[in-house]
Amino acid sequence: MTSESTPHWSARYIGRAYVPRVFDCAALAALVQREVFAREVQVPADRANAPGGRLVAAADQIEAIKAAHTRRVATPEDGDGVLMFCRGRPSHIGVACMVPGEAGSELYVLHALASIGQVVLHRARDLARYGLAVEGFYKWIG
């Protein structure tokens, strides 16, 4: 995960505890945008307690955020949002990380995963192992 001896910016988040209703995938995405990319991204404070169940609520709220604050892109860049299907719904978000390697940069996704209990960095091509599939990539706007 390093280029020469400089670690990728994502390294400082790996291993941070997932805390339901406090520090989840949306909170991580907002934190990274603020600390690394100097963007203010607002996520609903009530996202975990919305009616209709957690996944349905997350999917609905992600759709609202996506429409108001992002634009879809074909090729992600470092820091772009990665919307993922979880249990058939687009209800999980991560941050695109272009991590330098021997064959050039490879796309990874930094995300707070409840089933693992912490922030992890996965190769995008390996997400299916965790029951996730990429819905699309999004550039933050505004």
What is the topological layout?
Elements lengths: L1 E2 L2 E2 L17 H13 L16 H16 E4 L7 E6 L2 E13 L2 E10 L4 E6 L8 E9 L2
Antiparallel strand pairs: 1-2, 3-8, 4-5, 4-8, 5-6, 6-7
Structure, explained:
It contains two helices and eight strands; from the N terminus they run E-E-H-H-E-E-E-E-E-E. With 142 residues, the chain is of the alpha+beta class. The protein has a single domain (13-140), classed as endopeptidase fold (from Nostoc punctiforme). It has a six-stranded antiparallel sheet with strand order 3-8-4-5-6-7, with helices on one face. A two-stranded antiparallel sheet has the order 1-2. A hairpin with a 2-residue loop joins strand 4 (81-86) and strand 5 (89-101).
